[in-house]
Structure formats: structure tokens, C-alpha cells
Records
---
Amino acid sequence: MDLSLSTRTEGDRTIVEVGGEIDVYTAPRLREQLVDLVADGKYHLVVDMERVDFLDSTGLGVLVGGLKRVRAHDGSLRLVCTQERILKIFRITGLTKVFPIHSSVDEAVSATE
Amino acid sequence: MSVATVELSFSALPAHVRTARLVAAAVARRSGVDEAVLDEVRLAVGEACSRAVHLHRRHCPERPVQVTLIDDVEAFRVIVTDEAPSTDAVDGPDLPGLDDLARSADLDLDTVPPGVGLAVITSLVDDVSVEPADRPDGNGLVVRMSWPTSA
């Protein structure tokens, strides 16, 4: 399965819904999406990963890059993920300490710093 | 029971990493690797191949990456071999974590730092070894991983 990306706005948050596989082949498209949003002045991002089937360290690198970009504008990047197989790679890389990870988009949208 | 082997040699293109993952998962399943462990196989093989493809594209794009999948009697074994020079640690504990990356100020992030893929593999897979490839030029690493089979 290839990567699918769609964005929508809720208040001051931009939700990026990601589906499929995030790997060395597809990660550049996610990176481009995040870069475009920040360039467009969207600094509060919620990345919904509930439809992601596969994520590797290349994908993690892109998410970290996105986090650093929004932070440069005092923004935020929150993740929505309840899938154990995806959460596992965040845990083994220590990134659960870096990203706020929520169990639903609603929870992420209503979260404050 | 005889040992069955599938060999994969692919040009260093990111798109082929997915192919390698799919083939590895298919052979693992056939070998009798537990369904619950297949995600781990996919991730570990993906990381090893991504690392190899990344280094080959930089140093020797014309050379293929080799993956050997072995359905051994009591284990499913994967060997990923590259031919590129690298500074990655060999079987050492000094592997980097990605969280350090988040704190650094460098915004020009196209790829994860070298070694992260191997760090993921070594924390994920119980039976793993990373050794220099036996090549005259001293380049390349051999990443060996295995998982028990129930068959």
C-alpha cells in the first residue's frame, strides 16, 4: 500500500491524516507536506497515524524534522496513534518522550501545551 | 528437512525496499514465523535495506544490495549485505538514539543520522549480528538476523 495524505483544519489546528506505508520511498512526500504547511503558516499540526500500516526510522526522521520546524515558530506537532506496532518504534527510539501521542484526533485538537 | 533459501539482489532504489520487506515477510510466514512477529521482521528487514540503499546511493549506486532469506530447520534467517563504506558501529552498544536528534538545532533534515536504522534493529531483534563484510576494500556490512519458527 502506498502513502496517502490529506489535510483539514479544525480551529487553529491542522490535521494531517496519513495512511499506508511511511518508509524510505514515501517519506519524502510526507516531509514535503509538512514543509508546505509550515511555509503556509500552519504551526499547530496534528498528525493522525491511525491508518498507517508501516513506519520505519526514515519516517520517524521526517516527523522529528516536522516537530523542529513547527517549534521554530512556537508551534506544536501532536501525533494520534493507538496501534501497538507503530507505537513500538516510538518507544524503542525514545521518541515517546519527544512527541505528545494522543489516542484520538479530538483529544489532540483539544490538548494545550 | 532441507534448508530452503531465497536470494534477492536489487538495485539501490528506495522503492525496492518495500519489495524486500514484502518478500521477507512472505518467506518468513512460509517458514513458520509467528504471525505476531511478522511486523518485527518487516521493520527489521526494512531498516537494514533502507540503510544499505541509502549508503549505496551515496557511494556505489550501480551496485546491488543483497538479501538472503533462509528457511532453516528451527529458524528463519535474514542476511542483508551492502558494499558501501560506513562509520556505523559494529556490534557495539554505542548506537545513537533518535531523541537526541529532536533536540539538535539542525533543521535541514532529509535523513535520519547514520546508525539509527541499526539501533532500531538491535533493539528490536533478539538474535542479530552486525559484522564487516569480507571484502578486499574493507567496505560493507553484513547484518544477520534470525527468528524462531514453530514449524
---
Amino acid sequence: MGNYYIPAKYLLSHIVDADIIIPPFITAKTIELGSKYSPDFVCTPFKYTLGTMIESLEQGASILIQFGGGCRYGYYSELQEQILKELGYKFELLNLVSGKANIKRIYKMIKRIDKKFNIFKGLYHLYIAKNMVKYMDRVDDYIRKNVGFEVNKNSFDNLNKEMLDKFSKVNNPISLYILYKKYFHKFKKLKINKPKNCLKVGVIGELYTLMEPFSNYYLEKELASYNIEIKRFTNVNYLLFKNKKTIKKALRKSKKYMKYKMCADASSNIYWTKYLCNKKYDGIIHIKSSFCTPEIGSMPIIDKIANNYNVPIIYFSFDANTSEVGIKTRLEAFYDMIEMRRQ
Amino acid sequence: MKIGLPKGLYYYYCKKWVYFFNELGIEVVSFDTNKEILELGNNVATSEMCLSLKIFLGHVVYLKDKCDYILIPKLNYGIKDQMCSNFDCLYDLCNNLIDIKILTFDSKKEIKNFIKIGKELGFKRNEIKRAYLKASIKYNKELKKLKIENINKLNSSNKKILLVGHSYNIRDKYLNEIIDIIKKYNVEIIYSDLFDDDYYFYLSKDLYWKYSKKNVSSVIFCKEKVDGIVFLTTFPCGLDSLVNELVMRKIDKPYLNLIIDDLDSLAGMETRIESFVDIIEQA
């Protein structure tokens, strides 16, 4: 998912003594492989993860780790294991889905991979990885706000790559913090040409499609090319550490529209829609993979809020064979519309 | 006073409540699904919702002028017994989309919430408690009888088919047209929703959906005794897309996977069912 393989690789390579294979970036071939062996109307992340699993098994991986939970994401691994075994691969799937991911279980699993594992060393590196995710998300937030207005092309992208490269080589929390401060300063010094009343758009929706740039056909890059400031809430830091807090806040702040907690990110999305409307954003983009049940339940409510506040909203539903051109056309039309509303 | 219970989704898990309200002397209004209701639901729902949810919304719209309150609870049994995510948003969906008065509660503390609702409607605490107890005794008796009847069908000498699906699909009067086709062919139909969830562990360790557990354990219980298995699913069902696929991959019995989108053309279904019954009878 995006650049998050870097902290994951950092954590695993420091606590266990094993070769770690980074799966190749998702391409059209991955999704083709995945959808060939998937059931009929499963949601799209299943196809992506299955395709990635097959590709990394072909590179010689013997242990796969699946981490997740929430909606039906927690049940993926069992079916994927069965499908891969029927295809004839030999491997072990470590399954850390929600409800099963307690500390004892994780400890036992790691002990099985590497017998020399030391729990204090593990916790130390976990702390560093956690901070790394936090800093990455902060930098990403800044990039998203300003990348549309860069003067030198790709300057943000290149600096980000350089920073992540440095991040993967740190070995204590203090040097990580210093690096983060140094690079954040550098980011702020990059030349931008940002007008005061630029167009602002919020992006909400289902987590996988939001965070994996290939699966939404680089929607954020496309938006940035129209000189738009982008706000996105969903990131790994939110998913792992702030989830429960946000949902409680969401239930409190949007009582008028919702009473009970909904599955996965649906209730957070409703709250964020209200937040974006209150902050007078010019438009909201809701993206999800097709057949994502929690989002389907929340969409009519989101629609109602946007109507009440009179904020334009557009829905994208991505599948394995959505045409890229169609999405670009719809996005262009949406951009024209919000620009005309401004005038 | 009239309370409307929309006959879709949660209704089939909560028949106890019908008895409860009857015990208190409240009239319960609910209708069987028909084509008009499905069309009403189609008008309110978005295109990607599953057929069962569309039917439910249709029921709510249909009941709108025919009763004082409509009861839409949130079924909540904890993390290890989750419901489909559609059940979580039922109340909020109806509250926002349709302009009606709704009674609601969280089913985690059933008696407490029933007392709360009863007081809202103007009953005394004792009355409510007595009605609740009577209703649960009546309901449990009936359920036991149905369960025994269902298991006894396994001993019959006819060919036997296990019908796997959620209660709101197998019991629905409108979707039942498909089951009626199977019934034409002199076979016993065993329903999966009348089993306990004791055996799911042998097939799937991670399973955390309350009513899928029942379906899976029914398959394990009847695997040796039935001649064929029919899976009945409405179109984009989130749970069945994964669970049924896993079950189909792990069993070695003849099976038929029926996916209902709408009931406009039954001819294709008829042919498939006919050939499936032929296979079973020759085996």
C-alpha cells in the first residue's frame, strides 16, 4: 500500500533474521492474476492482495503475513490461503487479522520464525516503526496540500523519495526525529506558487482504494495537476492508533445523522463529510472499490449531508477493469464545475 | 396502537418480539414481500445495494402510512458474532432516507431495552417483564419444534437437498418462488438456518459472522447424509461471496450456486435446478 512498505520492512528486518521480499509494485498484470482466481463479486482489494501474493510467491517467498480487520477484510486470508494451496504453492500464511492479533499470538508467531527473537528489541523497533509511520503521514499531509502548486516539476516527489531512503537506514528514535525535522524544513523551503483562495477538495472513502495509488489510477496526482489543494484523512496512523477515538468523536459530533456505530470507516466518513462541509471546501470526492458494503450503507447519508450544506460531491467506484479515461473525463467535468461555482 | 415490523433482514431473527408485542396487546403490522414492495425499495435504494436490503427498504416505505411506529433495532452480539455491515446502518439509513417515526434499541441488553421501549409506549414495568418472559417461552418452544422437525427430515427415504442461505432469503415469500421450483421434484428440503453453530470450527477457524456460522455448521452436520447442496444468495452479498466460496472449495458433494439478482426471468433458474435434480437422482 503506497510507501508503507518501508516501515514494515524496517520493522521485520530488524526483529527477525530472515530475507524479506518486497513485492513488486502493483501493475495491470497483478490485478489480472488476482481477478482470474477470485470469486465473482468479492471487493477489489481481495483481487489486488491475491495478485500480490501470487507474485511474491513466485519470487520465492515462503512465509506471507496478512494484517487487517474491520469489515470482511478480516476473512480474506482464510480463503486466499485455500485458493493459493489449490494452485499448488507451498507456503505458510501468518494470519494477524482482528480478533486474533493479540500480543501473545504475535510473540509466538515471531518466535516460530526466529528462535533468537528478543521481545525488548522487538518493542524498541516497533516504537521506531510507529514513529516513522507518524512522521511519514505528517509529511504526506503537507505534500498533499502543496504539491499542486510546485514551481519545479517533481521537486516534492524527489525530495520525498530521498527522505524515505534515509528513513529506512536509521537505527534509533532520536536520529529519526532529527531527520524528520530536517526534511520537513527542506519541504517548507521548496518553491511553491500558491494563491490565497485556491480550490480545496476533500477525498474520503474506502481505505485500500484511497491509500494504494494504483488502485485509484493516481487520482491524487491527477487532482494536483489541476492546481487543487487536497485533504485526505485516512492513513495508516489513523487506522492503527486513532480509529476508536475518531469513531467516538464522529458519533458525538454528527448525532443528527447517525446514532449507531457503523462498520469499518463508514461512520468516520460521515463525520468527515460534515467537517469538510463546515470548513467550506469546494468539493468532496468519495472513492471506493465496487461492492464495498460498509460504504454502500453510508453513501445515502453522505449524499444527504452534502445536499444540506450545498457542497458538490462525486462518487467513484473502482473495479479491476474500470476504464481510466472515463474516470479522467468525469474528474475534469467535476473540476470545471467547482471552478465555475467559485466565480 | 400499531407497530410495524418490516418483513426483511432482521425480522426473521426476532420473531420473539412479535409475540412480545402481541402479549402486550399491541397490533403488529407486517406484510409479505410482493412486486410492489420490491419496486418501492428500488426507488429509494442506490444501485449497488444488495437485493435483501432493497426489499427491506421497500417494506419500510410500504409501512409508512399503515402504522404509528416502525421498529428498527441494531442487532449487536459482540465482535466474535458480527452481523453483516448492512445491519449496522439500517436505522440511520431509514431515519435519513424515509420520513417516519422509528422505535430503536441496541440488542446487546435485550430486556433492559424492551423495558425502556415499553415505558415509552406507556406500560408498567411488571407488565413488560411478564410479557417478555411469556414471549420467550413461547418462542423457544416453537423453535425447538421446528428444529426437531427439520432434523427428522434427514431420515426420510426421498432424495435430500440442503438449502444453504440466510433466513431473510430462504424464508422470504417472494424469493420463495425459486424454492417452490425445487419442491416440485419430490425431494426433501433441509433448511440451514435451523441448526446450531457448533461445528463451523472444523471448516473455517476465522469465521466471525453469527449467521454464517450456522450455515457452515449445517453443511458439516449434513455432509454425509444429504445428496446435494443448494446455495441461495442475493446478488452482491458480502458474506456469502467469501464464505460460500470457501465451503464450495472444501466439500466434495454435488452443489448448485444460485445467485438472485431480480426475479424477472425464472426460466434460466428452472433449467439449472432441473438438471441438478437429475444429477442427484442418477447418483
